[in-house]
Write the structure tokens for this entry.
Amino acid sequence: MAKRSISYICQNCGAVYQRWQGKCDACGEWNTIAEETAAVASVPSSQRPRSRGRVFALEALTGETGEAPRLVSTIGELDRVTGGGFVRGSVLLLGGDPGIGKSTLLIQSCAALARAGHRIVYISGEEATAQVRLRAERLALADAAVELASETAVEDILATLEHGPAPRLVVIDSIQTMWTDTVESAPGTVTQVRGSAQALIRYAKRSGASVILVGHVTKDGQIAGPRVVEHMVDAVLSFEGDAGRDFRILRAIKNRFGPTDEIGVFEMTGLGLREVTNPSALFLSQRDLGTPGTAVFAGMEGTRPILVEIQALVAPTTLGTPRRAVVGWDTARLSMVLAVLEAHCGVRLGGHDVYLNVAGGLRIQEPAADLAVAAALVSSLTGASLAADGVFFGEVSLSGSIRPVAHAGARLKEAAKLGFQRASGPVPASESAADGGLLIDGVTSLATLVATIAA
Ligand code: TYD
Ligand code: MG
């Protein structure tokens, strides 16, 4: 006989507790712990009969794989992030805030693949088939042979999928609406989301289909977040951008079959998501030319150079502890650049609030942005605007010297392509041939740069 056991599970990260508490110790979120019941076998595992096990065949590493292992979606920005298409038998989780455009992106790629002759199944647990169809019509995709269903019972979905020719791609929108018979908890709880994901992952491995699970990022812990399945799947992509702006950035957080540093850039339009193949032009399209406090950073996202504007505001403060606020960059990195400016360049910022923003909603992770940040800060403090046709890149060391960064050639080439005339940054002799005719100021110390700006 099965006995019911009650446990308290964090709906954000899946940590299990014996009793309820307000804050999850594992992930630090508040009010995310909910009561869940699970049926457990009443026979202790030590008394259960041991299974003899089934003998299976071992295979060689160099086996015949038959069909192409990857399914190329034909949406270039999506393929860039997955590492060249959806891998056969793999499971990908697409996470993001509600309303960011996950369903739109997926219906667009499903339609493109169905048009290429693949069997594609789209299961929506959130919208009725009529709603999905309506959206497809609006996007002029209604003629694509995508097979639709509005279902939430995992066992029924699997039975349907195993019937007929194996689909090449199955989209489950969203994993939080799915429920499986094998688990007793309510849909949307950690146990259900995990149980459903497990069943779908087993299906992918068995059938060779690629499965995409949509996961809503939740702030309030009402339903389980995508984090509880992140470690179970092969790849995790996150779709970001704020609802007020039209850019959307697709980023790989985990990828067993590809890089994790590439980003895909899209623009939400009245006709769905449009690929942005030249993101630099988009990020620089609304520049405040000639305003003090802005500098253009020649950055890299994976293998692609991306130019983006760094905005700084340095203002006198009356607070005892001045404010440091950063959007799109690392706060610790900003503190370091501020300390180097104070210690080695004579720039006094202790009596000033500092605000830093990366334009266009991009999140920069490279230390190569140090020099552009420093230039924007000094420009804002002194009121001297930087040359509108210049870009910056370079890592600042604690001693105030400027260190070379990777891919200087690619950064310079992108800047030249967008009409920039000059660059400040360390360029090794081997890369200078690729500079595209830019005037290069090979600064080697931050103090020199500060003196040039202030002069
Ligand atoms: P959706 O794909 O439903 O988001 P998610 O699945 O991540 O919750 O996108 C919904 C938003 O996108 C909604 O605010 C309307 C907007 N949108 C457009 O601007 N243009 C379009 O062509 C479509 C289909 C949606
Ligand atoms: Mg949706």
